[in-house]
Amino acid sequence: MGFEMSLSKIKVSVSSMLVLFVALFFTSCDGGKSDYNPANEKVVGENIAELTLPPNVPAPIDPHRAATKQIVNMEVLEHEGTMTDGVTYTYWTFGGSVPGKFIRIREGDEVEFHLKNHPDNKFAHNIDLHAVTGPGGGAASSFTAPGHETVFSFKALNPGLFVYHCATAPVGMHIANGMYGMILVEPKGGLPKVDKEYYIMQGDFYTSGRTGEAGHQSFDMDKALAENPDYVVFNGSVGAIAGDNSLKAKVGETIRLYVGNGGPNLVSSFHVIGEIFDEVHVEGGTAINKNVQTTLIPAGGAAIVTFKVEVPGSLHLVDHSIFRAFNKGALGSIAVSGDEDKKVYSGMLEDKVYMAEGGRSLTLPSAKGATEKLAGSKAERIEMGANVFKHLCQACHQADAKGMKGVFPPLANSDYFANDPNKAIDAIVHGLSGKITVNGEVFNSAMPAQSLSDEEVANVVTYVLNNFGNKGGEVSPEQVKKVRASGTAGKGGH
Questions:
Q1: What is the full per-residue pLDDT of the chain (494 aa) written as tens digits?
Q2: If 393 and its partner were Cys, which of 195, 201, 389, 458 is the partner (CB 3.0–4.6 Å)?
Q3: Is residue 34 part of a domain?
């Protein structure tokens, strides 16, 4: 009995020691931060803050540096820029870009903010930084007329990723013209190290002309009030981080995206096609969610997303309110280079034509090869091409080959390949992305390369050339082989 009581006391004693050890461990891991008050941290020295244009961000802050006085110089510029090909717009900007220049400080820093309104500007502006504790987030102290400079200061009390924007009346109009950006307040001790960091902000724009209408467009207040934007874009314009402007990464790298939503109206459903966010700092704060597919970013809000890229290829950044991505411009990409990992992603192994309701499945060529019937005449080539078109092409381009307005270009009466069938061949074997003009209408989507043999490509192109109001002709497998061998990736063009 006495032995059992002693054993019980030992167990209680060990348990108490474990609890104490765990408490001390987490306190030491936190660096004693539970007692840290950034308002009381002594400021040592001063520095002119580095500001960067999107999609770049300033270098990470030395985790060992003391709180410092950071001098931020921000100039407001009103200037004409390109919204999309053939469309210009007068942007109002912080630092000459949409979004405005990225500001990076750390909690405990004292910030001396200089807002400079260029003498050539027409309007007064101010700035509301969501990181500021004080009236208007600084807006009450920064109303600045053209040709003037105002100064105010604040203490960075809360770590996180915060939006800033103009708050001069009418506030919505100033934001809708591009007056927003982000400020990162790193926690004391810094953020975990990553390989690449990028800066992205979504915004909705309201223009006097319809989407894609050429010429200079002005702001439309009625559309803004109705929350019906003509453009929803990343970093101020269609294609700002797509195509040749794609963000870059290598297989094995960890990427951190600082993502904001300037609004002024729409909530963003931010998603990267082909990736899963390892971590998301929800609404730009300190709470972290793991293994997230899509994260909501409210107007005037932000999120920090981190993920490791495992395989090469194009990762598409979208607002998953998907018509905004493929029809209004909320589409970007990360071009990932490096070696493939077939265990993670195999790529296409086989492509079959599926015949429903008891029909047979015709195996199209794969890496394994396949035996296929060859056309003996032009008429037979057209007949065989009709089968490929029906089971592969018409889902997008429609049974009448007239396509879908603004999404899939027409193959009927098409002037795109009328004088050069090689353009149709190239689109099939190499894929096609970027802007193209077909029958006077601009399309900006993507068509992946198709896994068809030279014979099948020749058949389906010949079929299209001889139907749907096109002028006729015949394509041979040898012609397809030459185009395929060129290795030219399909790119949009007029």
A1: 454 445 444 444 444 444 444 343 334 444 445 688 999 999 999 999 999 999 999 999 999 999 999 999 999 999 999 999 899 999 999 999 999 999 999 999 999 999 999 999 999 999 999 999 999 999 999 999 999 999 999 999 999 999 999 999 999 999 999 999 999 999 999 999 999 999 999 999 999 999 989 999 999 999 999 999 999 999 999 999 998 999 999 999 999 999 999 999 999 999 999 999 999 999 999 999 999 999 999 999 999 999 999 999 999 999 999 999 989 999 999 999 999 999 999 988 876 666 666 544 444 444 344 456 788 899 999 999 988 888 788 878 888 999 887 778 999 999 998 889 999 999 999 888 788 999 998 888 778 888 889 999 999 999 999 999 999 999 999 999 999 998 754 445 44
A2: 389
A3: no
Do 319 and 356 reside in the same domain of the chain?
Answer: no
Q: Does the residue 13 lie in any domain?
A: no
Co-location of 255 and 363 in the same domain:
no
User: Which of 314, 486, 456, 328 has the alpha carbon at shortest distance from 382?
Assistant: 456
Tell me if 420 is assigned to some domain.
yes
Whole-angstrom Cα distance, residue 174 to residue 91? 9
CB contact at 8 A, 121 and 96: no
Nearest to 54 by CA among 103, 91, 113, 87: 103
Domain housing 54: 40-337
Q: Which of 274, 305, 337 is the last residue of a domain?
A: 337
What pTM value is reported for the model? 0.72
- What is the 3 state secondary structure string of 274-335? CCCEEEEEHHHCCCEEEEECEEEECCCEEEEEEEECCCCEEEEEEECCCHHHHHHCCEEEEE
Contact of 95 with 75, CB cutoff 8 Å: yes
- How many domains does the structure of the chain reveal? 2
